[in-house]
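Key result, reporting period 2: structure in, sequence out.
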Protein backbone atom coordinates (compact mmCIF):
# COMPACT_ATOMS: atom_id res chain seq x y z
CA UNK A 1 0.00 0.00 0.00
CA UNK A 2 2.87 2.33 0.94
CA UNK A 3 4.64 1.68 -2.36
CA UNK A 4 1.44 2.41 -4.31
CA UNK A 5 1.04 5.67 -2.41
CA UNK A 6 4.59 6.75 -3.30
CA UNK A 7 3.99 5.78 -6.91
CA UNK A 8 0.81 7.90 -7.09
CA UNK A 9 2.62 10.88 -5.62
CA UNK A 10 5.48 10.62 -8.15
CA UNK A 11 2.95 10.16 -10.95
CA UNK A 12 1.04 13.28 -9.93
CA UNK A 13 4.31 15.25 -9.69
CA UNK A 14 5.29 14.06 -13.16
CA UNK A 15 1.91 15.08 -14.61
CA UNK A 16 2.21 18.43 -12.84
CA UNK A 17 5.64 18.98 -14.38
CA UNK A 18 4.38 18.32 -17.91
CA UNK A 19 1.52 20.83 -17.63
CA UNK A 20 2.06 24.34 -18.99
CA UNK A 21 4.61 25.82 -21.32
CA UNK A 22 8.39 25.39 -21.17
CA UNK A 23 8.89 28.38 -18.87
CA UNK A 24 6.28 27.06 -16.42
CA UNK A 25 7.83 23.61 -16.49
CA UNK A 26 11.27 25.07 -15.75
CA UNK A 27 9.96 27.08 -12.78
CA UNK A 28 8.14 24.05 -11.38
CA UNK A 29 11.24 21.87 -11.81
CA UNK A 30 13.42 24.43 -10.02
CA UNK A 31 10.88 24.66 -7.18
CA UNK A 32 10.69 20.88 -6.75
CA UNK A 33 14.48 20.53 -6.86
CA UNK A 34 14.76 22.99 -3.97
CA UNK A 35 11.97 21.40 -1.90
CA UNK A 36 10.72 17.84 -2.37
CA UNK A 37 13.63 16.59 -4.50
CA UNK A 38 16.30 18.42 -2.46
CA UNK A 39 17.45 15.30 -0.51
CA UNK A 40 17.62 13.31 -3.74
CA UNK A 41 19.51 16.09 -5.55
CA UNK A 42 21.95 16.39 -2.64
CA UNK A 43 22.50 12.64 -2.63
CA UNK A 44 23.20 12.61 -6.35
CA UNK A 45 25.59 15.55 -5.99
CA UNK A 46 27.39 13.86 -3.11
CA UNK A 47 27.60 10.63 -5.07
CA UNK A 48 29.05 12.47 -8.07
CA UNK A 49 31.48 14.26 -5.77
CA UNK A 50 32.58 10.94 -4.31
CA UNK A 51 33.12 9.53 -7.81
CA UNK A 52 35.10 12.63 -8.75
CA UNK A 53 37.20 12.40 -5.58
CA UNK A 54 37.82 8.71 -6.20
CA UNK A 55 39.01 9.47 -9.73
CA UNK A 56 41.24 12.29 -8.52
CA UNK A 57 42.59 10.08 -5.73
CA UNK A 58 43.46 7.41 -8.31
CA UNK A 59 45.29 9.98 -10.44
CA UNK A 60 47.17 11.32 -7.40
CA UNK A 61 48.08 7.77 -6.31
CA UNK A 62 49.50 7.04 -9.77
CA UNK A 63 51.48 10.31 -9.73
CA UNK A 64 52.76 9.54 -6.22
CA UNK A 65 53.90 6.11 -7.38
CA UNK A 66 55.69 7.69 -10.35
CA UNK A 67 57.40 10.24 -8.08
CA UNK A 68 58.37 7.52 -5.60
CA UNK A 69 59.96 5.47 -8.39
CA UNK A 70 61.74 8.57 -9.71
CA UNK A 71 63.03 9.49 -6.23
CA UNK A 72 64.31 5.93 -5.76
CA UNK A 73 66.08 6.09 -9.13
CA UNK A 74 67.66 9.43 -8.22
CA UNK A 75 68.75 8.12 -4.81
CA UNK A 76 70.37 5.11 -6.47
CA UNK A 77 72.04 7.38 -9.02
CA UNK A 78 73.30 9.64 -6.24
CA UNK A 79 74.70 6.63 -4.39
CA UNK A 80 76.41 5.48 -7.58
CA UNK A 81 77.92 8.94 -8.09
CA UNK A 82 79.02 9.00 -4.44
CA UNK A 83 80.73 5.62 -4.91
CA UNK A 84 82.54 6.92 -7.98
CA UNK A 85 83.68 10.08 -6.25
CA UNK A 86 87.21 9.29 -5.17
CA UNK A 87 89.23 12.19 -3.90
CA UNK A 88 92.90 11.90 -4.72
CA UNK A 89 95.42 14.59 -5.45
CA UNK A 90 98.83 14.69 -7.04
CA UNK A 91 99.61 17.89 -5.19
CA UNK A 92 101.37 16.05 -2.39
CA UNK A 93 103.64 14.29 -4.90
CA UNK A 94 106.02 15.78 -7.41
CA UNK A 95 104.75 15.01 -10.88
CA UNK A 96 105.07 15.97 -14.53
CA UNK A 97 102.90 15.77 -17.62
CA UNK A 98 104.02 13.49 -20.44
CA UNK A 99 102.72 13.01 -23.97
CA UNK A 100 102.18 9.53 -25.38
CA UNK A 101 104.21 9.51 -28.58
CA UNK A 102 104.08 5.84 -29.59
CA UNK A 103 103.36 2.23 -28.75
CA UNK A 104 105.48 -0.86 -28.38
CA UNK A 105 103.97 -4.31 -28.92
CA UNK A 106 100.73 -5.51 -30.46
CA UNK A 107 97.03 -5.63 -29.57
CA UNK A 108 96.45 -5.58 -25.79
CA UNK A 109 100.10 -6.37 -25.10
CA UNK A 110 101.12 -2.89 -26.21
CA UNK A 111 103.17 -0.63 -23.96
CA UNK A 112 103.04 3.15 -24.09
CA UNK A 113 105.99 5.34 -25.08
CA UNK A 114 106.10 8.77 -23.43
CA UNK A 115 108.32 11.76 -24.20
CA UNK A 116 109.96 11.98 -20.76
CA UNK A 117 113.11 10.17 -19.66
CA UNK A 118 116.25 10.31 -17.53
CA UNK A 119 116.82 13.99 -18.28
CA UNK A 120 113.42 14.62 -16.64
CA UNK A 121 114.38 12.55 -13.56
CA UNK A 122 112.15 9.62 -14.59
CA UNK A 123 113.05 6.33 -12.88
CA UNK A 124 111.95 2.70 -13.13
CA UNK A 125 108.65 1.79 -11.44
CA UNK A 126 107.43 5.38 -11.19
CA UNK A 127 103.62 5.28 -11.18
CA UNK A 128 101.74 6.71 -14.15
CA UNK A 129 98.22 8.08 -13.77
CA UNK A 130 95.60 10.27 -15.46
CA UNK A 131 92.88 12.51 -14.09
CA UNK A 132 90.50 9.51 -13.83
CA UNK A 133 92.74 6.82 -12.35
CA UNK A 134 95.90 4.78 -12.68
CA UNK A 135 97.47 4.06 -16.08
CA UNK A 136 100.50 1.88 -15.38
CA UNK A 137 104.16 2.02 -14.35
CA UNK A 138 107.51 2.91 -15.89
CA UNK A 139 109.38 -0.26 -16.99
CA UNK A 140 112.14 1.21 -19.19
CA UNK A 141 113.89 4.59 -19.26
CA UNK A 142 116.11 6.18 -21.91
CA UNK A 143 117.50 9.68 -22.11
CA UNK A 144 114.44 11.37 -23.62
CA UNK A 145 111.77 8.65 -23.57
CA UNK A 146 110.29 6.02 -21.29
CA UNK A 147 108.09 2.94 -21.69
CA UNK A 148 104.95 2.53 -19.60
CA UNK A 149 103.51 -0.92 -18.82
CA UNK A 150 99.72 -0.25 -18.83
CA UNK A 151 97.35 -1.70 -16.26
CA UNK A 152 95.58 -3.91 -18.86
CA UNK A 153 98.83 -5.66 -19.87
CA UNK A 154 99.18 -9.34 -18.90
CA UNK A 155 102.50 -8.61 -17.14
CA UNK A 156 101.00 -5.90 -14.95
CA UNK A 157 100.20 -6.84 -11.35
CA UNK A 158 99.03 -4.55 -8.60
CA UNK A 159 97.95 -4.70 -4.96
CA UNK A 160 94.36 -3.44 -4.79
CA UNK A 161 91.45 -3.29 -2.37
CA UNK A 162 87.75 -2.48 -2.19
CA UNK A 163 87.18 1.20 -1.33
CA UNK A 164 84.08 0.24 0.67
CA UNK A 165 85.63 -2.19 3.17
CA UNK A 166 89.37 -2.41 2.28
CA UNK A 167 89.10 -6.06 1.17
CA UNK A 168 92.55 -6.89 -0.23
CA UNK A 169 93.45 -8.62 -3.50
CA UNK A 170 95.82 -8.63 -6.47
CA UNK A 171 94.88 -7.15 -9.82
CA UNK A 172 95.92 -9.04 -12.96
CA UNK A 173 94.98 -8.82 -16.64
CA UNK A 174 94.80 -11.44 -19.40
CA UNK A 175 96.14 -11.19 -22.95
CA UNK A 176 92.80 -9.76 -24.09
CA UNK A 177 93.02 -6.81 -21.71
CA UNK A 178 90.42 -8.10 -19.23
CA UNK A 179 91.32 -7.12 -15.66
CA UNK A 180 90.53 -9.08 -12.51
CA UNK A 181 90.94 -8.73 -8.77
CA UNK A 182 92.22 -12.13 -7.63
CA UNK A 183 93.10 -13.96 -4.40
CA UNK A 184 89.69 -13.20 -2.86
CA UNK A 185 88.65 -15.65 -0.17
CA UNK A 186 85.24 -17.28 -0.96
CA UNK A 187 82.45 -15.70 1.07
CA UNK A 188 84.22 -12.34 1.28
CA UNK A 189 82.13 -9.16 1.36
CA UNK A 190 82.50 -8.00 -2.23
CA UNK A 191 79.75 -7.17 -4.70
CA UNK A 192 79.12 -5.82 -8.18
CA UNK A 193 79.54 -2.04 -8.21
CA UNK A 194 82.29 -1.94 -5.56
CA UNK A 195 85.02 0.57 -6.36
CA UNK A 196 88.55 -0.83 -6.49
CA UNK A 197 91.54 1.33 -5.49
CA UNK A 198 95.26 0.79 -4.92
CA UNK A 199 96.14 -0.70 -1.56
CA UNK A 200 98.95 -0.24 0.92
CA UNK A 201 100.62 -3.45 -0.33
CA UNK A 202 101.11 -1.94 -3.80
CA UNK A 203 104.84 -1.76 -4.48
CA UNK A 204 104.40 1.13 -6.93
CA UNK A 205 101.36 3.31 -6.21
CA UNK A 206 100.34 5.31 -3.16
CA UNK A 207 97.28 4.05 -1.31
CA UNK A 208 93.68 4.66 -2.56
CA UNK A 209 94.33 5.72 -6.14
CA UNK A 210 91.29 4.75 -8.29
CA UNK A 211 91.52 1.61 -10.44
CA UNK A 212 88.00 0.61 -11.55
CA UNK A 213 84.75 -1.00 -10.44
CA UNK A 214 83.59 -4.60 -10.03
CA UNK A 215 81.27 -5.72 -12.85
CA UNK A 216 81.21 -9.49 -12.26
CA UNK A 217 82.03 -12.01 -9.51
CA UNK A 218 83.61 -15.30 -10.57
CA UNK A 219 83.61 -18.44 -8.42
CA UNK A 220 85.05 -21.77 -9.54
CA UNK A 221 84.51 -24.86 -7.32
CA UNK A 222 87.92 -26.17 -8.34
CA UNK A 223 89.71 -22.97 -7.31
CA UNK A 224 90.76 -22.02 -3.77
CA UNK A 225 90.05 -18.32 -4.34
CA UNK A 226 87.36 -16.37 -6.19
CA UNK A 227 87.95 -13.37 -8.44
CA UNK A 228 86.14 -10.20 -9.50
CA UNK A 229 86.17 -8.81 -13.03
CA UNK A 230 87.07 -5.11 -13.03
CA UNK A 231 86.06 -2.43 -15.48
CA UNK A 232 89.01 -0.07 -15.25
CA UNK A 233 88.42 3.67 -15.23
CA UNK A 234 91.16 4.11 -17.82
CA UNK A 235 91.54 2.66 -21.31
CA UNK A 236 95.25 3.28 -22.01
CA UNK A 237 94.79 3.04 -25.80
CA UNK A 238 92.52 6.10 -25.70
CA UNK A 239 94.98 8.38 -23.92
CA UNK A 240 97.26 10.96 -25.48
CA UNK A 241 98.74 12.32 -22.22
CA UNK A 242 99.66 10.91 -18.82
CA UNK A 243 100.92 12.13 -15.47
CA UNK A 244 104.09 10.59 -14.07
CA UNK A 245 104.41 10.69 -10.28
CA UNK A 246 107.99 11.18 -9.11
CA UNK A 247 107.24 8.77 -6.31
CA UNK A 248 109.19 5.88 -4.85
CA UNK A 249 107.59 3.79 -2.15
CA UNK A 250 109.56 3.40 1.05
CA UNK A 251 110.78 -0.22 1.14
CA UNK A 252 113.19 0.09 4.02
CA UNK A 253 111.26 -2.61 5.86
CA UNK A 254 112.50 -5.14 3.26
CA UNK A 255 116.12 -4.50 4.28
CA UNK A 256 115.19 -4.79 7.95
CA UNK A 257 113.51 -8.14 7.31
CA UNK A 258 116.60 -9.40 5.50
CA UNK A 259 118.76 -8.54 8.52
CA UNK A 260 116.47 -10.35 11.00
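The corresponding designed sequence is given below.
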Amino acid sequence: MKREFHFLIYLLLAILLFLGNNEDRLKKAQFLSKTIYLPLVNSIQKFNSLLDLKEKNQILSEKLSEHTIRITELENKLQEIENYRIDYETGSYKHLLADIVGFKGEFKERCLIINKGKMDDIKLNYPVISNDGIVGKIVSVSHNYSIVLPLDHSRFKLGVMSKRNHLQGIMKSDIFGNSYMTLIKPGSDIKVGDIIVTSQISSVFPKEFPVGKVIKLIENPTEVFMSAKIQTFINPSQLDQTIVLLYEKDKSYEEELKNN
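The helical segments are 2-18, 22-34, 38-84, 252-259. The mean pLDDT is 80. This case is discussed further under Risks and Mitigation.
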